[in-house]
Specification:
Elements lengths: L23 H5 L11 H6 L1 H9 L4 H15 L1
């Protein structure tokens, strides 16, 4: 019954012309080596994030307060 939901792993070779496909991460490297994420403080301090927050009317102190509140509930 479930056999139809599984497929064999695909080869990285494009069968039409024999060229090898290389993933974006392999070609350019991964921004998050080791599958880690940037710290929240780094994200919150990013100028682009700050600009988006300002455009949306989000006060950094208010958001940080909400994050702290939720973090406390999860402990």
């Amino acid at each position: 019954m479930l056999a139809s939901t599984f497929e064999a792993a695909r080869s990285p070779t494009d069968l039409r012309n024999g060229s090898v496909r290389i993933s974006h991460a392999r070609r350019y490297g991964s921004a998050f080596v080791g599958n880690t994420e940037p710290p929240l403080a780094e994200v919150m301090g990013d100028p682009i994030v700050r600009g988006l927050m300002a455009r949306d009317g989000v006060q950094p102190e208010s958001l940080q307060g909400l994050i702290d509140e939720v973090r406390g509930r999860l402990r």
